[in-house]
Amino acid sequence: MATIKKLAEKATGPLAGVRIVDLTSVVNGAYATQILADQGADVIKIEDPGSGRGSGGDIMRYPGHVPPGAPRDLGPIFLTINRNKRSAVLDLKDPKARAALKKLIESADVFAASVRYEGLKRLGLAYEDVKAIKPDIVYVHAAGYGSDGPYAGEPAYDDLIQSASGLADVLPRTDGNETPRILPTLVADKVSGLFMSQAITAGLLHRERTGEGQFIEVPMLECVTSFLLVEHLYDHTFEPALGQWGYPRVVNPHRKPFKTADGYIGLLPYTDKQWDQFFEVAGWGDTLAKDPRFSDYAARAKHTHELYGLVETVTGTKTTQEWLDLLKPMSIPVVRTNRLDDLETDPHLQAVGFFERYEHPDVGAYNAIKPPVKFSGSPANIRRHPPRLGEHTQEVLAELGLAEEEA
Hints:
This protein is an alpha/beta fold. The chain is built from 16 helices and eleven strands.
């Protein structure tokens, strides 16, 4: 059985001492604020008590199974993106709760929200309202669509943003099936969350240098489309366009793990030397090395469909381990293809301690994903379990000098 790890005693990350009032939920904003919490920020998650139809709080508390006897509000996805936070329940329709929140904002460095902006305005929590409370606040709004466009204010979820950004058109360009398809991961939410966490730290740096806070908008559609078009703008980079949308090497149907005699490998010779070496061990010798289609990077880029198709014909002649033993000494990029079931036993992930096991007082043993970025002087850490709904309400109010009945 894996060793149960103890929580860190205090924040040691580079954002220790930064306080974030967090009105985000679901995945996009919650992922962003957990990254910052891991890096030391005191993230206070403001949750709604619920309307009576649901159980209240962040909706991502409830998908998935929990262990027998465990509370429903600590579902598996919630656990992966809400550690190191404190949860305070405030009914923001109540004037007393809004007054308590305003007092909390006075102590904060960052106000982060994914509530639609019109809703924030109705609550008296638009940027100008919050700035009036804390003039140097870094106010970050995770929007679905930029406020200057016709979609502004419309609801946005991962499925919608994948559909609108062009992501749903990537697989059709790969396999010829014209049906748009959504990638089976919450890529739009998570990419937007990464943009949001970076925007918050940039806003804090600006404030450190100038003393000024500001309003920062992080629109999902623009962020995800920008992310996608890094490579897929391709020939449309130029005006007039010189050819196609989509980087041919990436929308190649043969770009996939290659089947071996007993499994699959990820394989990508990249330089001229690496391809020459691979052609040699594959038994093609100088035949393909001298083929004008594959003679240099530019030529290979035009013929990746044929090239990867050829690779696929030879990888099945050896086992995965044989390919690893053969290619790694040549520094040819190759890796064993993991299934999800393989990740916990992957030797590299084991060596770096990627999965950490903790004992939650309400759900028992659970696996946490170690903060992946390594800071040599100010390491990120895990010091708080994902919180129960409202677990820290009384604690947070007491820090503000308020009793619970005052909110």
